[in-house]
Amino acid sequence: MAWGKKKGGRKEPLFGLPAALADLRLTAADRIPGGDDKPKKSAKSSAKRKSDDAGDEPPRERKAQASRSGAKRRSKSGGGFSLGRLVYWGAVLSLWCVIAVIGVVVYVGAHLPPIQSLEIPKRPPTIQIVGIDGSMLAQRGEMAGANVSLKDLPPYLPKAFIAIEDRRFYSHFGIDPIGILRALVTNVLHRGVSQGGSTLTQQLAKNLFLTQERTMQRKLQEAELAIWLERKHSKNEILELYLNRVYFGSGAYGVEAAAQKYFGKSAKNVTVAEAAMLAGLVKSPSRLAPNRNPEGAEARAQIVLAAMADAKFITEAQAKASIGHASYDVKPAGAGTVNYVADWIGEVLDDLVGQIDESIKVETTIDPKLQSVAEAAIIDELAAKSVKFNVSQGALVAMTPDGAVRAMVGGRNYSDSQYNRAVTAKRQPGSSFKPFVYLTALEQGLTPDTVRQDAPIEVKGWRPENYTHEYFGAVTLTQALAMSLNTVAIRLGLEVGPKNVVRTAHRLGISSKLEPNASIALGTSEVSVVELVGAYAPFANGGLAVTPHVVTRIRTLSGKLLYMRQPDERNQVIDPRYVGMMNTMMRETLINGTAKKAEIPGWPAAGKTGTSQDYRDAWFIGYTASLVTGVWLGNDDNSPTKKATGGGLPVEVWTRFMRTAHEGVPVAALPNSQATWGLSNLAQAASQVSPPTAAPSAPANNGGYRPPPPTRANVRPEAAAGLDGWLMDRLFGGNR
């Protein structure tokens, strides 16, 4: 039995199991203190706190104060944590940015040539092409101007480029962060790319080492190379390189070439206004070139002048005084046909001197005055009559009897089409090929007075006809060639053999492939203008073979001789007797034949017209003892013209050119034109004529033999008055 306690100290007895368990309970002193156990405050402390609380403030205020204190402690704890995290992640992000930049730099640098192997590339060689009088005709090569030293230029010229392109040139290290930022802000405000941030050094790096593609990789490479250039070269060296390499439009590279191109003077002598215009071209050289857009070039120059004044490089008064005072020496925008000559020279240079590694001067046979006359003759004739006759293109080649080309026009406008119709294009020559047929016949024993029938003919189902569909019976070879009778030419070609005709043409200078068939007599195989003119040259020089050529000498700019043309071997490809016969026959073409409009006052001349099938090509090849000139007119797509014939437009172009070309030149007779072929040949010719023709007439006023007119026996009565009567009038302008 156990005793329990009561309030007064009395113990009450406890019976049974509960009493026993009660004695086994642990007191607070017997327990081991745990993590959750908190020491209990003494009753005295508790009582004191209650007393203080009760005496100082009410319970609600104490609760609010406790709440504020807790919030303040939490705020301090949370604020410190956020700032630290911000600093930490900022550092991490910065580190990754640095790593990314390094990676990009390494990647871009890996795609550049090794910096230690980079060198300023040499200027590509310039090809200067000069005429027979030494005047400049054209220039070829990427860098067309000579280097000029910075100290030799007027100070305002380089300052004009600095003012408009890179105001901080002398203070940045190749890249201008301020300039880039300024350009970025300007572009954002204008919602487009209105200003660039590239420095002059970056532009030079692009011009020297990189392509013009607009990619981020190229811009980064440009920046790396700009820094390398700044470390390798001084500011003045970089500026000088820039001025000598930058492109100014119209094929002009460098300030010297540009000044010569646009102002006709050296860059050393340009004015402030001209310097401003040159600096303004760099932004868009093709669009602002003065020869293409003078208004745009002037407007841009005014912007440059304002920038120079703003940078204190010139005064405001100088800027105002220079507006509109650039002394243009730009040739009017025209055909520029001398560029066809330059292209032709470019094609043969490799054969003459091989690969060149320095600038050269090419001396040519071109006469600048005759080149201008030829260009004007082609352009003016086409401008006046191209629509009427549906003719869009033309070509002209003029050469001396020894093959020296004096003028060449490969098309009506080089800027529109660089295709050279004088050298590269091959077209059917039509009846202008017939002289090779007649020469072959003469070499086989016939004479200019030999008679053949002009009558319908059929060759394996082919029925060639004359232009007028009329036939004139028995005619002499001279009459047949002058009137360009197709049936007679076919008969002669078959008589002498097409293969022999081809051999004759090749012997005289035709290099194109010719088909030895019956139609070769009508010029159905294609040839170029330059080779056909060259093949006519033996008629003008007494029967000697020639090679058309334009280059006489090639030198380096320092004067070293690289090439000199040697005279052609004097190979006689036509017997002088037959030269005289052919000149007599083709002389008649200009007197009474299909080319009566082709006349050079005082000069004996000869030639042959030609018109191909369906009027697709119109030709005239004519010559004197001084000059051989061929003209072709037609369409590039080989479409038919509106009945343009060799005796029309080509003769008009030829006459205009040749009259000017022969002004002041002493008159000379055609080779062997005064020679006769002997009584035996005349007797042979008389025996072949049926019915007989009249005896040869007295020599013509040009000293050559002149054939007799047809008689009433072999020509229709209406034409008995002679070749200059009804017959020839009916036949003019035909397929000849």
UniProtKB/TrEMBL annotation:
Taxonomic path: Bacteria, Pseudomonadati, Pseudomonadota, Alphaproteobacteria, Hyphomicrobiales
Pathway, per record: Cell wall biogenesis; peptidoglycan biosynthesis
Reactions this protein catalyses: [GlcNAc-(1->4)-Mur2Ac(oyl-L-Ala-gamma-D-Glu-L-Lys-D-Ala-D-Ala)](n)-di-trans,octa-cis-undecaprenyl diphosphate + beta-D-GlcNAc-(1->4)-Mur2Ac(oyl-L-Ala-gamma-D-Glu-L-Lys-D-Ala-D-Ala)-di-trans,octa-cis-undecaprenyl diphosphate = [GlcNAc-(1->4)-Mur2Ac(oyl-L-Ala-gamma-D-Glu-L-Lys-D-Ala-D-Ala)](n+1)-di-trans,octa-cis-undecaprenyl diphosphate + di-trans,octa-cis-undecaprenyl diphosphate + H(+); Preferential cleavage: (Ac)2-L-Lys-D-Ala-|-D-Ala. Also transpeptidation of peptidyl-alanyl moieties that are N-acyl substituents of D-alanine
Source organism of the structure: Bradyrhizobium cajani
Source organism, top-level taxon: Bacteria
Keywords of this entry: Carboxypeptidase, Cell shape, Cell wall biogenesis/degradation, Glycosyltransferase, Hydrolase, Membrane, Multifunctional enzyme, Peptidoglycan synthesis, Protease, Transferase, Transmembrane, Transmembrane helix
Residues in coiled coil: none
Domain Penicillin-binding protein transpeptidase intervals: 394-625
Disordered: annotated segments: 28-77, 687-709
Keyword presence, Zinc-finger: no
Domain named Glycosyl transferase family: residues: 142-308
Ranges annotated as biased composition (Basic and acidic residues): 49-64
Record protein name field: PBP1A family penicillin-binding protein
Protein family according to the UniProt entry: In the C-terminal section; belongs to the transpeptidase family.
Keyword GTP-binding: no
Pfam family, one: Transpeptidase
TM region positions: 86-110
Record-level GO cellular component terms: outer membrane-bounded periplasmic space
An MF annotation (GO) of this entry: penicillin binding
One of the GO biological process terms: cell wall organization
Compositional bias segments (type: Low complexity): 687-700
